[in-house]
Design a protein that fits this description.
heterotrimer, A alpha/beta, B alpha/beta, C mainly alpha, A: alpha/beta, Rossmann fold, 2 domains, six-stranded mixed sheet, 17 helices, about 30% helix, globular, B: alpha/beta, six-stranded parallel sheet, carbohydrate binding (chain B), ABC transporter substrate-binding protein (chain B), signal (chain B), Peripla_BP_I (chain B), SBP_2_dom (chain B)
């Protein structure tokens, strides 16, 4: 057998106080897809950052075509033909698609940029890849999914021999995922080696030639194509058995007490006559395609965006919510999909974040913050929610995605919110932690909280929600009881093929 | 690694600073008189807290003070804030001067009221205060050695009126609508015109903070707005130079517009010599500096002082520029 | 109804709506950025022309242009820095230090004028270089780094000049740099400003330098991960801004035919205001040279017009302040719409 395209061996990396990677290995051959899985905090991102030259390894070796190499910086990685699509969007919103793709490698005419050549080249690349985008469009005006496609085009533009994709499909719709998988197939045919990080087991089954599993910074094992089996992989990842498939029933919860009733909610931009009810102890799922208006509904309810019509009743009484502070006063907490930007102060501690929304509770006479009381509360929620953090004084930035989400939840629980709106609660969170978040939401609902879950992942909605509200084009196109719902049925409503609106089942 | 990089940079910056300083014409020393004079009984210490030090005027005051200090065998320190708006910085300087415990303090108040508590502090410390240029509304301060600015403004008005033949439109480019010299030089001028020259109209008064560039732009706008304008009065050096620059930039023939300035300085003296400016009022900053030091020594010796010493203001133009008594009060 | 449930993204309305909305947002933003500033300028010109017969004369217009030159040149340079999401507070006093250095070399040392001019520009570049190193490598926040430089420059200008103005009366031809007329009845200072605006325009929109300026302001980390040496470019950007500061210093000294060491404080804020009025975002990622030029003209037209109308100085400040607030509000409107 010829030398592997990319081979890493015995890689270890420590940060002050944390061992991120310990003796990790994998190898990648040309023309194959290696899927790398592991819970958040398992060390995948650190490994990727070492390969892309952002971090330097402590020990171990990296070989490309059998030759040992050093990767001191991003430029060196590119020179070796290693390209990375990062999990976080790494685009310049103010530049065009073409300008983003060829940043750092602009074609020039003398001292000036060759803008026309740049656009031609980028358009050619997009067309070749089958990505339907105008190279001259400004990236900031694109949807998240389209931005993701730009990222992919950019990574592929390097004529990369090794392409590392870190959760490339987390924001894509099903068709776009198909497009991406098509892309990957054609790249494989050309001999590109692909390291694919994903939490979606369906994709894993379709794509993987081999699967390498990491856990807690250690190498657990590699499965060859014929050994790949989802339950085995999940067990390797989390070291315990998971019960998927358990779906709640609408009839299970108390259904009489309506805690939130939204009637005729409209906004100038998108929403038209959105109405629904949320019952005590219920998890209400919101499904729909990107741009259907789910997040917009949540924002309009909490007063983050102006409403043009509609009423909101909390516990049977009509309330006036003009700004998020009003919503919080009425016990409605909104957990944004963009945790890092809108949900957390990343540079601050767990305690700081937990106490942030309810400072009144932790403020003594003269406005002095009662640090001890805040810490006690934070510690309680760390225990309740099983947040994995060395201490409540840990800076939130250093926690994994799932644990960050728990801190956000703690923040709203501390504020005594009875109605919690979760927008994509498990985005960027790995399978094991997802299940934990699901159980947590169910526990909260069982304790009497009322929960709205906005999710783009249909299995997630089916796994969690008692009832499901489906939206399309700013309207509610259907409301289904869980036992009446299926992925196909939800998609019908989401693509607006079923016009009649069903009432609460 | 990082540390050494930073160190290198700091070193580099310091080198840069030194290299630039090396080009300097040499900063004037902040103190004068006998250095290291030792004990209190030997040499009298006088701390002067001025309204500024960058401006030519204050440098001339300082020159006068240092001359007097030399003659009287006392030691003076001279300091002032960077801009005449920095009332707070000046008060801190006064506070520091009181804390140092000199034998007397000479003070030119930027704000007549803010200084009152510090005067009380000086009184309890037993340090006499004599005032120059502008006084503080406290009983404790002794003798104000200053130009009578109202009289100086009126003197400017009389000369302007004479030069334009007692009629026509004039404008004023002021340097401040707040501080007392700006207000009084303007009011002295305005009141004199209103009282004695009914055919002269003051069509506009604007303020350029004594900034040469801004004053020039203001003067140009005034000339554009009032085509019949015959005269412009600038209430300090920067304002007057601004007017001169405006006229030069517009290419108006020298003397077509009658410009009356205030204070001296090389540029203003040049403008008067070549006829662009008709003339200007000068104070006697060197005299102010001398007087305040003399008064300070007198106050230390317990002598009784008058409330006010008018150090005088003089009209000068191309005719009398070279007269010894005028040349003596002009500064470059 | 008979369609299959697959291919959701082909649902035509969804796609079309999003696209249309994006296009509308882009148009709205562009309209505001270019149109608002230019419209304001035209409205101001019309208003003052009607309000005063003496406003729209060539002599006054040329006066306005000349009054714009120094602030305009400073604003052009600092547009780059602000586009990166940074700020440069050292341009006002830095300009003064450059003017003083020109005077030291051309007057005190008596070297040929060209060396004086080069010394002024080099001084500006050197300050920009130090600002850039402090921001890029020492990771000082731009506000702090340039605030420090502002004070250093102010102090050095006083020290080096011996707290005295330096007069260029003995240097023939120096004044012509600002006040000569290569193009009849257009002062050279204005010509220099327009030439520099053209240079800045090409730099920002046609060169790699400009591309990285926008990229860094848009997402510095992403730019770095793309293999661009962002630190080196930041240093370059601040240095280029410093060159503009140096040129502004030379033009200022030429116009006053002297280097006034106490001048300069407050000029940086006027220049920054001009940049913001022109539609460059303080958050970075969006810069417009044409906008900056228009912004600088708006400032000086406004001030000149109010002076022509003999409005009290105090009220002039109020009006200018309100205009800046409106401009920044428009900026925030843009950011609310865009992403």
């Amino acid at each position: 057998m010829t030398a592997a395209l990319l081979e890493v061996e015995g890689i270890s990396k420590s940060f002050p106080g944390v061992r991120a990677l310990h003796e990790v290995q994998f190898s990648l051959h040309s023309g194959e897809v290696l899927v790398l899985v592991g819970e958040n905090g398992a060390g995948k991102s650190t490994l990727m950052k070492i390969l892309s030259g952002i971090y330097q390894r402590d020990t171990g070796s990296i070989r490309v075509d059998g030759q040992e190499v050093e990767i001191p910086g991003p430029a060196a990685a590119q020179a070796l033909g290693i390209s990375i699509i990062h999990q976080e969007m790494n685009l310049m919103p103010d530049l065009s698609v073409a300008q983003n793709i060829y940043i750092g490698r602009e074609p020039r005419k003398g001292p000036f940029l060759d803008e026309r050549g740049l656009n031609r080249k980028a358009q050619q690349l997009l067309d070749d890849l089958g990505i339907k985008l105008d190279a001259k469009q400004r990236v900031g005006d694109l949807t998240v999914a389209k931005q993701q496609m730009v990222e992919i085009a950019k990574a592929l533009s390097f004529d990369a021999r090794v392409l590392i994709m870190d959760e490339p499909t987390s924001a894509l719709t099903d068709t776009e995922v198909e497009t991406l998988i098509g892309l990957i197939e054609s790249l494989k045919a050309k001999g590109t080696g692909i390291v694919y990080i994903s939490h979606r087991m369906e994709e894993l089954k379709r794509l993987a030639d081999r699967v390498t599993v990491l856990r807690d910074g250690e190498y657990i094992g590699t499965l060859e194509r014929d050994e790949i089996d989802v339950p085995t992989i999940i067990e390797m990842m989390v070291g315990r058995h998971l019960d998927e498939g358990a779906r709640p029933k609408a009839s299970e919860h108390l259904r009489d007490e309506v805690v939130l009733r939204v009637t005729g909610l409209s906004t100038r931009q998108l929403l038209r006559d959105v109405s629904f009810e949320l019952h005590r102890g219920e998890i209400l799922g919101f499904a729909g395609l990107m741009g259907a208006g789910r997040t917009e509904t949540a924002r309009a309810i909490i007063g983050a965006d102006p409403r043009s019509a509609g009423t909101i009743e909390v516990n049977g009484k009509q309330v006036s919510i003009k700004q998020p502070a009003d919503a919080v006063r009425h016990g409605i907490g909104y957990l944004s999909e963009d945790r890092k930007r809108l949900g957390l102060m990343l540079e601050q501690s767990v305690t700081f974040n937990t106490a942030l929304a309810s400072m009144g509770t932790f403020t003594g006479p003269l406005g002095v913050v009662q640090q001890g009381k805040a810490r006690t509360t934070a510690e309680r929620y760390v225990k309740d929610l099983r947040t994995r953090t060395p201490s409540t004084e840990q800076v939130v930035k250093l926690l994994s995605g799932g644990n960050q989400q728990k801190v956000v939840i703690a923040k709203w629980l501390a504020r005594d919110c009875d109605i919690l709106i979760f927008d994509e609660p498990t985005r960027g969170i790995d399978v094991g932690a997802k299940e934990e978040i699901y159980r947590l939401l169910q526990k909260l609902a069982a304790e009497g909280k009322s929960i709205i879950v906005i999710s783009s992942e249909l299995p997630e909605v089916l796994r969690l929600a008692h009832r499901i509200v489906v939206m399309a084009n700013g309207r509610v196109t259907g409301t289904l009881a869980n036992e009446d719902a299926s992925q196909a049925k939800i998609m019908e409503f989401a693509t607006h093929l079923v016009a009649d609106e069903q009432g609460a089942a | 690694m990082r540390f050494s990089k930073r160190t290198a940079l700091v070193a580099g910056a310091a080198t840069f600073a030194l290299a630039l300083a090396g080009c300097s014409g040499g900063g004037a020393p902040a103190t004068s008189g006998e250095p290291e004079a030792g004990g209190d009984g030997e040499t009298l210490q006088i701390a002067l807290v001025s309204k500024g030090f960058q401006h030519q005027f204050w440098q001339a005051v300082r020159t006068g003070a240092e001359e007097a200090a030399e003659e009287l065998g006392v030691e003076v320190t001279f300091e002032g804030p960077a801009a005449e708006t920095e009332i707070d910085a000046q008060l801190q300087m006064l506070q520091a001067a009181i804390d140092r415990g000199p034998d007397a303090i000479g003070y030119a108040a930027l704000d007549p009221q803010a200084c009152i508590p510090l005067y009380e502090a000086a009184e309890s410390a037993g340090i006499p205060i004599v005032e120059f240029d502008a006084g503080c509304e406290s009983e404790y301060g002794q003798n104000l050695a200053a130009t009578d600015s109202m009289a100086a403004g009126a003197l400017a008005a009389q000369n302007m009126a004479e030069l334009i033949g007692g009629e026509g439109q004039v404008g004023i480019v002021g340097h401040s609508q707040i501080n007392s010299t700006g207000v009084e030089r303007r009011d002295g001028f305005v009141e004199e015109i209103e009282a004695n020259y009914p055919d002269i109209e003051i069509v506009d008064i604007q303020y350029g903070d004594g900034d040469h560039l801004r004053s020039a732009d203001i003067a140009k706008a005034m000339i554009a707005a009032h085509p019949d304008l015959v005269g412009l009065y600038g209430t300090n050096e920067g304002s007057a130079i601004g007017i001169v620059n405006a006229v030069t930039e517009l290419g108006l023939p020298a003397g077509e517009l009658t410009i009356v300035g205030f204070d001296s300085g090389a540029a203003q003296v040049d403008a008067i010599r070549n006829g662009v400016m008709a003339g200007a009022i000068t104070q006697d900053p060197i005299g102010i500096g001398r007087t305040v030091v003399e008064n300070a020594v007198a106050a230390i010796n317990g002598e009784e002082l008058d409330d006010f010493t008018d150090t005088g203001s003089y009209w000068y133009d191309a005719e009398n520029l070279e007269d010894p008594e005028i040349a003596a009060v002009l500064y470059e | 109804m008979s369609q299959t449930t697959q291919s959701p993204a082909d649902a035509p309305s969804d796609e079309a709506v999003a696209k249309e909305r994006g296009a509308r947002a882009a148009l709205w933003r562009k309209g505001l950025q270019q149109g608002l500033a230019f419209g304001t300028l035209v409205v101001l010109l019309l208003f003052f022309s009607i309000a005063s017969n003496n406003f729209f004369t060539w002599s006054n217009i040329s006066g306005i242009l000349l009054a714009t030159a120094v602030i305009g040149i400073l604003a052009l340079g600092t547009t780059f820095v602000i586009t990166t999401g940074g700020i440069d507070l050292s341009i006002g006093t830095g300009m003064t230090l450059a003017a003083v250095m020109t005077g030291i070399v051309a007057v005190n040392l008596g070297l040929p004028l060209i060396f004086g001019v080069l010394a002024g520009i080099a001084t500006g570049a050197l300050m920009g270089l130090i600002n850039g190193i402090n921001v890029a490598y020492l990771k000082l926040p731009p506000f702090i780094a340039t605030l420090a430089m502002m004070m250093v420059a102010q102090g050095l200008a006083l020290v080096i000049s011996g707290v005295r103005p330096i007069y260029f009366s003995g240097v023939p031809g120096f004044k012509d740099i600002a006040l000569g007329t290569l193009i009849p009845s257009l002062p050279n200072a204005v010509l220099i400003m327009f030439i520099l605006a053209a240079v800045a325009y090409f730099l920002l929109s046609k060169t790699v330098f400009g591309r990285y300026t926008v990229a860094i302001g848009s997402n510095e980390e992403a730019t770095r991960l793309s293999g661009v040496n962002t630190n080196r470019w930041l240093v370059t950007i601040y240095t280029v801004a410093g060159v503009f500061t140096g040129i502004a210093g030379v033009v200022l000294a030429a116009r006053l035919d002297s280097a006034q060491p106490q001048l300069g404080v407050g000029y940086e804020l006027q220049a920054i205001a001009a940049v913001i009025i022109g539609g460059t975002s303080l958050l970075g990622g969006r810069g417009s040279i044409v906008g900056t030029l228009i912004g600088a003209l708006i400032m000086s037209v406004l001030i000149n017009g109010l002076r022509i109308m003999s409005i009290q100085t105090e009220w002039q400040n109020v009006v200018v302040g309100v205009v800046i607030a409106i401009a920044v509000f428009a900026d925030s409107l843009r950011n609310r719409r865009g992403l």
